[in-house]
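Why do we bother with a discrete structure alphabet at all? Because it lets us treat a fold like text: something you can write down, compare, and reason about line by line. To make this less abstract, here is a complete entry for Molybdate ABC transporter substrate-binding protein. Read it the way you would read a sentence in a foreign language you are learning: slowly, and without expecting to understand everything at once.
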Amino acid sequence: MKNVKRLIVTFLAGALVFSFTACSTQNNAQTGDSTDNINLTISAAASLKNAMEELTPMYEEASKGQTLTFNYGGSGDLQKQIENGAPVDVFISAAQKQMDALEQEGLLADGTREDLLKNNLVLIAPKGNAEITAIEDLGTDKAARVALGEPSAVPAGQYAEEALTSLNLLDSVKAKAVYGKDVTQVLTYVENGEVDAGLVYETDAKSVPDKVTIVSKVPESSYRTVVYPMAVLKGSTQQDAAKNFESFLKSDEAKAVFKKYGFESL
């Protein structure tokens, strides 16, 4: 009888330990408290790529064990991916519009939305093109083809349309517009001489100084301030780590890198 009781006690103790371990594992998966093998997925505006490629090894070294995977694209396309259930931990948009939409749909983790960076819109031309000297030239025969971001999905395209509308140039430019899926493609069109001019962010233009010329800044009064907001997604299972990544992007170390690429930290 004593042996039977001993077996029953041993069995119950083992079952209790198994139950506690299973619950603990499940809770860690839900809250993201475990720091082992964490990989954060970041959906970020295409214009951030150069800066983020430099910041990634810095963060991974500092966080010890965490890795980053980036999905770059037009902010509108990234927004749609998130709305369709894409597994994203942090979203960084090139405009407030896309972040506003996700917030209204209840897809952002409470208290994690912050404005990160500021940028400017500039007029660029292929290196060696001396015909384009001012934004007003876009409405003349000096520019046969003009590259713009697709305004339905690319914030740079939305800002460009605002500016062109304000400057009474939109109708004439639309007739010769070549639209890119993101600001990187717009830059490529200009780099390759496929168009006579384009409107991109200052940070993108500065990334290829040997291939494009910055003709001028677009008058800031003609379009809304270019602000990049960021937020953790409510569906992230690694919210603690995602919040740490946000904090890193606001650090002095990260700000220095953003400044190097032409961004202004907020």
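What the structure line is telling us, in plain words: The first strand starts at residue 39 and ends at 45. The domain at 37-116+226-263 is CATH 3.40.190.10 (D-Maltodextrin-Binding Protein; domain 2).
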